[in-house]
Amino acid sequence: MSATTVGFGRIAPTIPVTDIQHSIEFYRDVLGMTVTFTNGSPTGFVILRRDAAELHLTLVSGHRAGHHNGAHLMVDDASGLYEHLIEHQVRVVKRLRDADYGLRGFVFCDPDGNRIDVGQPLP
Known about the structure:
123 residues; alpha/beta; four-stranded mixed β-sheet; globular
């Protein structure tokens, strides 16, 4: 058997965070995601979902975010999400734009500075 003959299923990014509860509040209250699983006492790992999107948070003390995108989120209304995040004073590191590769998108940061790249296919 070859790796090219194996079917792949869902893949979900794991985002390191320094404060699980604060991060849950951000992803739940600002992005509307739902906690579907927690592990540890105290909690050190969380799975969040909304629609087809799934994100894993893992507690990493001393984590420092890099300058790369940790996840890419496809949406059906990038402009609407952009305005929503601006209203909630979320840090945007790349403003809303239409890219020549066919996506309208932007990049924002979660409370730990992890970058999430948002994209919407252009008509």
